[in-house]
Amino acid sequence: MCGIVGYIGDKEVTSVLIEGLSRLEYRGYDSAGIAVYDNNDLHVRKFKGRLNVLADHLKEETLTGVVGIGHTRWATHGEPSDRNAHPHTNVAGNIAVIHNGIIENYMKIKEWLVEEKGIEFKSDTDTEVIAHLIDCYYEGDLLEAVYKAIRRMEGAYAIGVICKEEPDKIVAVRKDSPLIVGLGEGENFIASDIPALLKYTRKMHLIENDEVVLLTKKEVKIFNDLGQQMDREVFNVTWDAEAAEKEGYEHFMIKEIHEQPKGVSETLLRRLDKEEKVTLDGIKLTKEDLDNINKVYIVACGTAYHAGLVGRYAIEKFAKIPVEVDVASEFRYRDPFVDDKTLFIAISQSGETLDTLAALREAKRKGARVLSVVNVVGSSVARESDDVFYTWAGPEIAVASTKAYTTQLVAMYLVALHMASVKGTITEEQYKEKVNELKTMPDKIQKILDNQTKIQHLADGQFNNEKVFFMGRGLDVHVAHEGSLKLKEISYINSFAIAAGELKHGTIALIEDGTLVVALATQDHLYDKMLSNIQEVRARGAFVVGVAKEGNKEIEKTADVVLYIPDTLDQLTPILSVIPLQLLSYYIAVARGCDVDKPKNLAKSVTVE
Ligand code: M6R
């Protein structure tokens, strides 16, 4: 989604803005622009395309200001183009605005601006109304004009505003779209995401919903929606900027695939005490709390939703509480049955996914206790939850989620085991067996990664397929869905996931000579059934890649190629079986020449509906 950066201080502003925006490129965008105050005027430069189009243009001229705002746009209202790129200005060009999110009532405001004020619009965006609205209310005080403007705006937004008449300040607002402030010595920053500012500062203020910020080079003032000044602690970012670099890998995605042993180990070992008991510091659920809960909802989007499906299995199996799993965009609008006996679990890598956040708020409103599994410390989902379990995956930059997924799986197993242990629904022996097996996961993932050459060769032979099916039974179906999502989002191949038992109810009609079918067969009690399903698709000409546990060699008689994962408990296979699927998707996308880290039409953090 869009990225925001703003700077006020003594440094040459264009390079700070370009540097900051380059750190946000991973979010996905289609145009980029800046507005800077220089030589007693505001100068706006904005272009369709990658950030380097803007950067190259700036090399040819000298803009030497010390205050400015910059933006990478992911088109929602209006096609990607120079004129729709941000910043947007008022008619006189003395107020410039950058904006993430959507102004839902922009048509109504636009009509008013056109009919009552005679304003001619220069773009097709919703954002442009903000610049004109602020202009309408401007009487020499930018902060006051912004307040008046936002009172008329509905929707989700983070905005940054500068004004030619008050070049010593930036005003920013957050409503349902992430915004942080970076604190420097004699300089201050705004951004939509922490990596944008790490080169300059590790001291941040996390801005809350409905807050308005006034920045000068010397100070930062935060106000609530009533205009009252708020105190805010300094948030120190502890992770390294280097963690967000490629470190010699060709893409972030393959780097992040290889970081999974470390991420899984961190997520796990930080939660095991000396007695190897799971201690979840951020989770304060007591036995009494858990006894009061009669239903769990797990809600998330995309890959995080797939982790939720495995989480349902683990909680029902170990803690014996009924669980429903839902995608956030459906949950929030279907008036789900939630009350104070419901535990709502939100799963989100970014912690900023708008649908997940809205679903969380809906569940809270109805009285549910909210637990979140989140990767980004201090993110909105984390801050609005009663209990938080941080996955320790480190920053995930590639749009396709990999290490976030495996660490979310570990988190869900630990949450389930913790609940089971507190409720007493699992024996000490069973508990130990699972914890001990979880501890072997980092080495087992590493073993799969060490043998990836076979998968590379397979990808070289299969990258031309335009249709791929993933199938499995039991827990394998959930991994099939994740494998299919991974492949389609980065390679643009039409891929589908199906419960293998459903084949004969329709989908088998699509199998023809050469169709690639990835068949997961890791569940011992369903192994023979899967072998039959493999026979069925092979009989129709499919080329079958099986995924099975080491030692289960029978599958070699039916599948064309078999990718083995190290032996483990059936209940834990998803942590391993997804790894070959991630690698296969990655190498297929590379062979097809796709932009693996930034697939078309996608954004890393989906902060609009
Ligand atoms: O940040 P979140 O975990 O809330 O994001 C959820 C989805 O947008 C995300 O998992 C998406 O599906 C990924 N592109 C999948 O690789």
Would you give an account of this structure?
The chain is of the alpha/beta class. It folds into 3 domains: 236 residues, 4-Layer Sandwich (Glutamine Phosphoribosylpyrophosphate, subunit 1, domain 1); 195 residues, Glucose-6-phosphate isomerase like protein, domain 1 (Rossmann fold, 3-Layer(aba) Sandwich); 142 residues, Glucose-6-phosphate isomerase like protein, domain 1 (Rossmann fold, 3-Layer(aba) Sandwich), CATH 3.40.50.10490. 35% of the residues lie in helices and 23% in strands. The chain contains 19 helices and 25 strands. It has an 8-stranded antiparallel sheet, with helices on one face. A hairpin with a 2-residue loop joins strand 2 and strand 3. Helix 4 packs across helix 5, helix 7 runs parallel beside helix 13 and helix 13 runs antiparallel to helix 14. The termini are close together. 5-amino-5-deoxy-1-O-phosphono-D-mannitol binds next to helix 9 and helix 17. 5-amino-5-deoxy-1-O-phosphono-D-mannitol (M6R) binds next to helix 9 and helix 17. Pfam families: GATase_6, SIS. GO terms for molecular function: carbohydrate derivative binding; glutamine-fructose-6-phosphate transaminase (isomerizing) activity. Its EC number is 2.6.1.16.
Corresponding CATH superfamily of the largest domain:
Aminohydrolase, N-terminal nucleophile (Ntn) domain
- How large is the count of helical segments? 19
Envelope shape: globular
Can you tell me the CATH class of the largest domain?
Alpha Beta
Report helical residue fraction. Answer: 25-40%
User: Could you give the order of strands across the largest sheet?
Assistant: 3-2-4-1-10-9-11-15
Structural class: alpha/beta
| Global mean pLDDT | 93
CATH overall fold name of the largest domain: Glutamine Phosphoribosylpyrophosphate, subunit 1, domain 1
Distance between the termini: 11 Å
Number of strands: 25
- Report the radius of gyration as a whole number of Å: 26 Å
What percentage of amino acids are in beta strands? 15-25%
Instruction: Please describe the biggest sheet, giving its number of strands, its sense, and whether it closes into a barrel.
Output: 8 strands, antiparallel
Which CATH architecture of the largest domain would you pick?
A: 4-Layer Sandwich
Bound small molecules, deduplicated:
5-amino-5-deoxy-1-O-phosphono-D-mannitol
